[in-house]
């Protein structure tokens, strides 16, 4: 229990007031001994036990009434979890708001989303309790601490609107630590509003132990998690992939893949619906295709849409009927004539370079042309970064100007894959952004197998047909451990060896991709080149991802840096959103800059990532002052309710009970109040 006016509790000693009044009242009367009444003492002793209990109950009811009045004035609140933050208001309050696409799930009746519900309830709570001298917002889209002047401003800021982005909760907490250490705010309440998506929390990241340790060193910091982990029933999401123009004689067709995702609970709840209409819009021309839906969703590959043969570029949109989450009911795409997809292979060993070129030179898609060029480390200065989609680096890790160029290449949307050099580093300290190679190690027998790989996304995911890649057939004979600074970077492991060493991992970046492989494709090191299928698909997928940023029509995930120079881009769709320039790149839509088109959408992880188990989330804050509050969209209950009315009723009941106890007792006819019993004849003699 907490109190809005805790200072009133200082008057609790007034509960003793009835006792003091009773003692004072007793001293007003002097006791006079009267011999004629001495025989009454024995009769009084007979009722003394019950009378004392009655007097004690009367006194207790009076004290309870006084205590209830004090509690009413202190304005108690029914929220035991809140009392952990102390009785008074904090010096500062920080709100960490998850603005990811999944937080757009809403209650259909009220229209309130997880994000808006959590924000409005927090505003209501802080209005009652106060938020100290500072109110700070850290949103998942920018990860920047922004001071909010008032609670009324909080609900209207553009930084709290829904986005198509994903969240990075560890990054938000790291930004919180930077703010707290810079401002020394004293006692601080930190509120995290999130739906616990696995991709947002990254519970296995090496950053969490460091975050936990640093928060443990701070005094007076209390963390509260406002959790909206329930998945919306019956929600569907739509996605468009592999969009390309394909000439058919004098006509032109737009070919694309459509995918619908459905959670199992939603499919079971609406199992009577087995056909879903998907509306397709291409340059404002609409058509509808129906898709068969099962518990997992639906897939339609190679869907063809005839378009004007003179149309060389443009945009489109796939839309679903309204459901619980409007954020994933639309998906935008763009198209333009295909370009030559270029890959650069940097190596000083021609045999290894040839293995990579074989996997890259032949395109996996009809109508697309690949080009793979092998250069030595001495020729890196001649790379045309503006025409390159994929960089394969099999040499000592770069440094200096070359490292800066590669970092800029990734930031622009390119893909880099690092493979281990066969030679040892001269100083043993060569690294790239905190990553470096360990010593070569050999594997034999069962230990050479891949023990685990990620098959739901990224380079080793299932084929379009749904079949798994034959990763379990691969063998690794020699590898170099991939070492990295756990506090500086978070990496996503895509494949592991039997000794739990990473075989392939990805370093998350705002744009573009960065991969590290622990082995080489040639027969001396692995069976990648010999088995071929996995190696070929892995390289082709990396090349496809890297070339998207080079085309006149790009399709990228929403992020703060999605659009370079946002003011130069014109918003094409959706019409009338009114999103400010600062929010472009965060909202799903189509943007145009001269001949270039860009479609911005939510990431794939927003559609397929389940919620992190609450036990796993609670374990991340083990040892800290932390409390989780589970809420749900549509739940109208406040986070904190005043319960002074309960104490008011308690006071009235205490006074009524005290009044009943004070009523005079009714005596039988043969008894009197405190007098000896006499018969009628005796009375006549006395008279």
Describe the 3D structure.
It is elongated, with a radius of gyration of 37 Å. The protein has 17 helices and 29 strands. It has four domains: 1-29 and 43-78 and 642-664, no CATH class; 87-231 and 614-630, Rossmann fold (3-Layer(aba) Sandwich); 236-337 and 551-608; 342-547, Rossmann fold (3-Layer(aba) Sandwich). With 687 residues, the protein is an alpha/beta fold.
Question: Could you list some keywords that capture this structure?
Answer:
single chain; 687 residues; 4 domains; 6-stranded mixed sheet; 17 helices
Q: How many structural units, i.e. domains?
A: 4
Quick one: biggest sheet?
Answer: 8 strands, mixed
The name of the CATH superfamily of the largest domain reads Class I glutamine amidotransferase (GATase) domain
Gyration radius, rounded: 37 Å
Backbone structural class: alpha/beta
What is the tally of helical segments? 17
Number of strands: 29
In brief, what are we looking at here?
The protein is α/β, with parallel strands linked by helices. The chain is 26% helix and 26% strand. The radius of gyration is 37 Å and the shape is elongated.
Helix-strand layout with pairing:
Layout: E1 2-3, H1 17-26, H2 40-46, H3 48-74, E2 76-77, E3 92-97, H4 114-129, E4 134-139, E5 145-147, H5 151-154, H6 169-183, E6 188-194, H7 198-201, H8 207-216, E7 221-227, E8 236-248, E9 251-262, H9 264-269, E10 275-282, E11 285-292, E12 297-307, E13 314-319, E14 330-335, E15 341-347, H10 350-361, E16 370-375, E17 390-394, H11 400-411, E18 415-419, E19 435-442, E20 450-453, E21 478-484, E22 492-497, E23 502-507, E24 513-517, H12 528-531, H13 533-547, E25 553-557, E26 570-573, E27 589-593, E28 596-601, H14 605-608, H15 614-620, E29 626-630, H16 644-662, H17 680-686
Parallel strand pairs: 3-4, 3-6, 6-7, 7-29, 15-16, 15-17, 17-18, 18-24, 25-28
Antiparallel strand pairs: 1-2, 4-5, 8-9, 9-12, 10-11, 10-13, 13-14, 19-21, 20-22, 22-23, 23-24, 26-27, 27-28
Helix pairs in contact: 3-16, 6-8, 10-13
